Amino acid sequence: MSKAVVLGAAGGIGQPLALLLKCNPLVKELSLYDIVNTPGVAADLSHISTPAKVEGFLPADDGLKKALTGADVVVIPAGVPRKPGMTRDDLFKINAGIVRDLATGIATVAPKAFVLVISNPVNSTVPIVAEVFKKHGVFDPKRLFGVTTLDVVRASTFSAEVLGDVSLAPSISVPVVGGHSGVTIVPLFSQSSHPLPKDFSESSLQALTTRVQFGGDEVVKAKDGAGSATLSMAYAGAEFATKVIKALNGEKGIVAPTYVNLNADKEGGDALKKEIGKSLDYFSTNVELGPEGVAKIHTLGKLTSFEQGLIQTAVPELETNITKGVSFVETPKL
Question: Strand 53-57 vs strand 73-76: parallel, antiparallel, or unpaired?
Fold first, then answer.
């Protein structure tokens, strides 16, 4: 039984994410933090007949510190969503500062917690959290995760649609590697548990890949200015948090794609760097989870030439995103 904390709990992702965690029998305590409305969200959730005790905190009276005290798992969906016409650069400028400040709180109050970053752009916000932790001398690469589960959920769902049976979606497993935005998202359909139809053309595969990569745009457009992918992201965030909590409790054999610091498992990380041909510090790949967080980083395995091309496109973009996150938090020279 764990204490889970949601930072950004009153927002479009935060509220449904908090609801799903309140319904999770593995969560004993649920702490909610945001700059507005959290006591109301907590009061609402507290009426649900599940075991988790819910509390909501605001910035006043050391709210962040109180929310984080005793945390086992901290999920961060805080920040602003992407609106139509907004570039990822616009998004970065706002969300980077929010994530840096929350990371400072975690580093000082709950440095041993598992930190699950949802705030976009994940390719840059995860390195921001890491750099803040390094400044406080508490960085453990095994405990920091970028949540890329929505890409996996989309790949499974869209595969089921292609196969003509949506009921297959929960049982379809497609590894999605690279990062968590646009061309850095690389779905490996050749390794899917349910192969695509034999007559599936290259152009159809390209279209399916693009749909996974830019699924967020599909939702932003459909919501017509009223939001982004909040409900599906909340579902994906809760799914990944559940996996982390189960691993924390000693359940074995849990493997999921997630964006991690490759030093979390040096052997696996070095093998992965060799595969992608670049010494990146962060990459999303299948990771085995354990009580200590990252137990093993898996390599990419056998790729098709199409997938190798996608990786080659993803790597320079990822490198730029990572550098942007690291340089946002100026680490003093020793």
Answer: unpaired
